[in-house]
């Protein structure tokens, strides 16, 4: 039985982004491990689109979404994978691989949201579309997103070192 | 330095035939577009600019985003004046074009010229503004010709698209003698983001090739490399000057020309330090010889034309003195011989030389040239021996 790990090291932060976040907020707020003091807050309306690029292909087992319980937490989450140039228009027109209706307990307590692994067995990029929030207000806030799974045995470019460095 | 992909929306509707902006609204837009594209690409060579014509049967992407200014100028010639402007569709097509930009790291920007009275509703404009904001596309609008009628709608559009002051509305009122491109240049919209390198397109290009120092804010890595090579050059120059002053005068030249040569080199050295443009060619892997050659040529560049001519004349009139020969990588025979004793010893051995020559294909040992060269080697060997004997006698 393979061990599932936090895929944080497989995430290509440089090519990941969050659309409709407030300016000056960075994707590392929610993807990097920190003390949850940094949020991503939605800007124009309550929708958020998180595009996560991986450095290598992975198998996604589950995901943890952490947010506040005050109604700003996301409710409907649509999951897409391996899309190119993914924006809000595509998010609203394409059929998602998975649809989840999040509940308050899941996001405040950081519970694992299980994916059907057979559908996510070869993921290069993961796209999370948070369509609305629990309170129905104009602002959605997310504290942390953790992706759990196992990386596939493909070449990990970041591990390539020059021979001299190894010596 | 902002890395940016920009699409410029041009209003080629019939309203642009109006001559209130000389020669007409359409041509002043073309003029402004070349200025804007030039500024953006000059700010950063990797920035891309595309052009979309808003009027006609449908909005048409005349030029896909490119970083070649020439293409921009060519493309503007292809646009015809026709029909009415369709703002919403144009923005959507521009948005699509930006979404599929080749380099995802580029920030997205739309620059829109509006010279016709808008028929779209204010709510629709607000909606498209929000859409742009969501997709993190910044919008600049240049409104001219119909400024009062469009003021309210365009302000609403900009307000909705604005997030953190990245969108601007420039309204140019109609009055005689106004040139649109000048107004745009003066407003500083298109140069503000980069820290003041824009605004003067012409000299900007000249400056690029002519070689002012690179702004450290603009490209810190390049600035650092240039500084390092500057330091190396200075050290090399000071070392050369020391060597020149220490060397004995040779038999070949008059002392005067020698001193003149030194002075010129000193002058060249100083000019080298003052003019830093040579260093744009600096290659970190230069070996010494190469460096000295380039040193020579870069020194030549540093002089004015007159001085260059003077220098060339002197060079052709006199035999080059050995210092300069060294710099060009040509060493006199004596030095060469002293450097490699093993080879010299081998050459002294006649039999060995003969056998080597025989083994070489295509060499006829009887050949005149070869026999002469061998003689020369022998003679010089004898000269060397004589010199050694003399020195011993002196001691």
From TrEMBL, chain A:
It comes from the Eukaryota. Pfam families: PITH (PF06201). GO terms for cellular component: cytoplasm. Gene3D superfamilies: PITH domain. InterPro entries: Galactose-bd-like_sf, PITH1-like, PITH_dom, PITH_dom_sf. PROSITE patterns: PITH. Residues 1-167 form the PITH domain. Belongs to the PITHD1 family. This is Thioredoxin like. It comes from Anaeramoeba flamelloides. The lineage of its organism: Eukaryota, Metamonada, Anaeramoebidae, Anaeramoeba.
UniProtKB/TrEMBL annotation, chain B:
InterPro entries: PSMD4, UIM_dom, VWF_A, vWFA_dom_sf. Residues 247-261 have a biased composition (Low complexity). Residues 231-293, 320-395 are annotated as: Disordered. Keywords: Proteasome. Residues 5-193 form the VWFA domain. Residues 231-246, 262-271, 375-395 have a biased composition (Basic and acidic residues). PROSITE patterns: UIM, VWFA. It holds the Pfam family VWA_2. Signal peptide: none annotated. One of its GO terms (cellular component) is proteasome complex. Belongs to the proteasome subunit S5A family. This is 26s proteasome non-atpase regulatory subunit 4. It comes from Anaeramoeba flamelloides.
